[in-house]
Amino acid sequence: MRYVKVAWSHDFADDPVLYLSELGDDGYETRKVQFYRDGRAEWADESHETATVGLSEIPFPALEEISSQPEFDAELIDSKEFEQAWIRSRSTS
Predict the structure, then answer these.
(1) Is residue 92 over pLDDT 90?
(2) What is the three-state SS of the chain?
(3) Are 29 and 22 in contact (CB under 8 A)?
(4) Strands 41-45 and 29-36
(5) Pick from 49, 55, 71, 80: CA 20 to 30 A from residue 23's CA?
(6) Among candidates 44, 39, 52, which has minimal Cα distance to 21?
(7) Considering only CA atoms, which of 59, 58, 3, 6 is closest in space to residue 31?
(8) pTM above the 0.85 mark?
(9) Predicted local distance difference test score (pLDDT) of residue 93
(10) Cα 38 to Cα 3: distance, rounded to the nearest angstrom
(11) How far apart are CA 57 and CA 67, in angstroms?
(12) pLDDT score, position 91
């Protein structure tokens, strides 16, 4: 598994500002957490999606490709950081 964090710098009130994804060996998301400016967190996995959060249907792009766009900053994180965000999102939703 790999874990990534993508910060999205924007002015949209209803869109997430931070994404954390767990990726399988095939590059597809297996779990995802989205954080919003107001502190709200949403999550998705293979058995739970909502109208605003779901797993991508394509493999996750290279971090360099994401970060080449000025509004995005992508980086690898460790499993501990992801698990903390996962637990937090599940307890607040």
Answers:
(1) no
(2) CEEEEEEECCCCCCCEEEEEEEECCCCCEEEEEEEECCCCEEEEECCECCCCCCCCCCCCCCHHHHHCCCCEEEEEECHHHHHHHHHHHHHHC
(3) yes
(4) antiparallel
(5) 71
(6) 44
(7) 3
(8) yes
(9) 57
(10) 24
(11) 20
(12) 86
The Cβ-side half-sphere exposure at 52, using a 13 Å CA radius, reads 13
Both tokens assigned to 86: 């996962």
Q: What is the rounded CA–CA span in Å between residue 92 and residue 17?
A: 17
C-alpha 51: how far from chain center: 15
| Euclidean distance between CA atoms 51 and 84, whole angstroms | 24
Output the pLDDT for position 64: 96
**What tens digit of pLDDT does each residue of 33-79 get?**
999 999 999 999 999 998 899 999 999 999 999 999 999 999 999 99
Average pLDDT of span 83-87? 96
Structure confidence at residue 28 as a pLDDT band (50, 70, 90): very high
